[in-house]
Amino acid sequence: MIDHFGINCADLDAATTFYDTVLATLGHTRLKEFSDDQGHGAIGYGTTKPDFWISRFSDDLGPNREMHLAFSAPDAATVRAFVEAAVGLGAEVLHEPRHFPEYHDHYYGGFVRDPDGNNVEAVCHRVAPE
């Protein structure tokens, strides 16, 4: 059901030190890192794939920062159905369903906001690039 989960951190360096240390005790390591021009970054932890992500958030989000939750989908059609169902309920689309080769070659996902403003995704890891 759950593919991966992510939280936003006020101090990514402090959070990285914390999660590098505590997750190592559970056998997990830092597996992937992304950064952008604005100094935002994301770090993925896991054992075989990044299941838990931390990222820097914008200072203007206030105390209730959004979280990211990705649900597993069996195929691209299900990802599209997930987004269509959310839109039918009035959800904002963050990213239309598509391939995300920057994540990996077979990553197909669609992202929406839930009623509380969280970034919710459906993702399939078995879709060949178009």
TrEMBL record:
Gene3D superfamilies according to UniProt: 2,3-Dihydroxybiphenyl 1,2-Dioxygenase, domain 1 (3.10.180.10)
Top-level taxon in the UniProt lineage: Bacteria
Limits of the VOC domain: 1-125
Pfam family, one: Glyoxalase
InterPro entries: Glyas_Bleomycin-R_OHBP_Dase (IPR029068), Glyas_Fos-R_dOase_dom (IPR004360), VOC_core (IPR037523)
Protein name according to UniProt: VOC family protein
The organism of origin for this protein: Nocardioides marmoriginsengisoli
